[in-house]
Amino acid sequence: MTFTKLMATAALTLGLATGAFAQDKTKVGFVFVGPVGDGGWTYEHNQGRLAVEEEFGDKVETVYVESVAEGPDSERVMTQMALDGADLIFTTSFGYMDPTINVAAKFPNVKFEHATGYKRADNVSTYSARFYEGRAIQGHIAGSMTKSNIIGYIGSFPIPEVIRGINSAYIHAKKVNPDVQFKIIWAYTWFDPAKEADAAKVLIEQGADVILQHTDSTAPQAAAQKAGNVITFGQASDMAQYAPMPRVSSIIDNWAPYYIARTKAVMDGTWTSTDTWDGIGPGMVGIGEISDAVPAEVKAEALEMKDKIASGEYHPFTGPLKKQDGSDWLAEGETADDGTLAGMNFYVEGIEGDIPQ
Amino acid sequence: MALATPVLAVLATMVFGGLLFAVLGKDPLQSILTIFWQPLFGEFAFYYRPQLLVKGAPLVLIAMGLALGFRAGIWNIGAEGQYIIGAICGAAAALAFYPLEAWWIFPLMVICGGLGGFLWAMIPGLLKVKFGTNEILVSLMLVYVAEQLLSSMSLGLLKNPEGYGFPGSRNLQQYASAHNAEIIAGSGMHWGVLAALIAVIFAYVLLTRHRLGFAIRVTGEAPRAAKFGGVNPARLVLFCLGASGMLAGLAGMFEVAGPAGQITIDFNVGYGFTAIIVAFLGRLHPIGILLAGALMALTYIGGDIAQSQLGLPAAAIQVFQGMLLFFLLALDVLTNYRLRFGAAEVA
């Protein structure tokens, strides 16, 4: 038993050694949860990968595997990348968290970056974007533009990131339109065009004339286009092919600057484990062009809010705010702390329905 | 001839897969080599070979159970659901006693996992026996029920209290008594692999030496003859569904306690459905299934390597796997029937 273990360890170390020294190219691996052509989440991560290639040219080699199931399959793919000599590996879905930590423990010299998780190690960083900042702007536009006062929301999984987005959008829709009502459907997927289209259709049938989505495909956009008079927002990617209607704006994930900076840090030997959570200000979250379908004054207000969020003058979660059960959350003028936001598992006052348990 | 077709199918897949890769602008020979050679004999085979066992074991375990039913014309399509329920029951049994460390926890999980899958398969079984419902539909529909139950468990009852509100149970890999660890470190040989091997031997003996196996085979080939021969069809339905449900449940339990580690919303990755392919690829024969499971695992692992090393898209790998089944079925037709062009003759 000890012999095989010894052999395995020796071989692993050997693999590491050759990986780390035998080449001067820095090798960067990417593990994707969807196909690179999803037009949303994975598409933008892949854009970040291409930006890394463009920035460093010959000095870098990137590899990726797409549509990797969360769980043991992802663990194998990461191990395989590390064995093949990757110096830095980005794992771009929440469900890769434990596998990333497991593989990182076996390859102490390889750096790992896990998106949207909360577990770190000496060679594992985490990074995410403050999408809720963009959701605030979406909520403002949605609340101003809805005529039926029903806003449909396609949730992926009831995790804090998604719940944060729902709360942020609701708060800002409610501010401009006290009669607004949210209808939320949980799709339990990040990428499944058929399911997403079904969800959008159901919401439209229930009277929603705004569809917000936290899933990655353009299927809800297509469904809204077919229904007519329904507006949507691009998710993760600009989805500009659906502008000016139904897509009136979008939240764009811009990973390129971060990926370039982290790759550079590995090249320079200055990489350390960190937790990054950037928003509109540093440019990790972009707001796609607001189309002409949006009334001019609403557009102006939305852009003003964007600037205020970027400069730090305004925080989307500013009191007074109550939780759904009526208990106090934030006092007048108080802003939410990152700890609460990171683990958010409650709706704010006014949202109907329960978070699935 | 029946033995030669799988080999021919693999060869045809290599040829046409190679063509596909060539059209995509990749070196076909290198692509095929990467998929079939790298995991077995490549530089890092010491890592991939154990992974073949990890990936193949649940496939073989489930397919073995399914094959028993398929042979008798009893179609359990819902192994994916039984797999999920087995995992939930196994994990729940362990988490109920967390953080107690005791030798009996793992055996208890095995029992609960198997029982969970068994009971879930009993639903279509009893409905068929009592009311004559179609077991294909009922077992398939129960997959979606099981998936909803899985979501509910990850978000509610089994959610990790120290998980910051994120869905998913505690990680069983960090709970020594419940961890389905490798029996020999670095070998990939966990208890599920052992169970799969035992299931293969057991099924082989059952089918070739036992009365029950004979009843299964006769029922599949000539149901009326089986009835005259004294086979009780109701009991056979319950046995086949129960056995396949139990094996699928066990596979789920071994997976959640070992390689996967935790109950999450998307814990299931389709082993229950892939196992149907494995069962047919293996000719519904125990040894064949063993080989087919290994081959399937090989294309998965090799496929991932080809993606990252050669930049092949995931879809191309899936097409490649699809070709394998297509050619096997096509060659089957050509083996059993002769193509005749022109007008049909009156026999």
From TrEMBL, chain A:
Residue ranges annotated for the ABC transporter substrate-binding protein PnrA-like domain, each copy included: 25-313
Domain of life: Bacteria
InterPro entries for this protein: ABC-Purine-Binding, PnrA-like
Keywords: Signal
Signal peptide span: 1-22
GO annotations of cellular component type: plasma membrane
Name by which UniProt lists this protein: ABC transporter substrate-binding protein
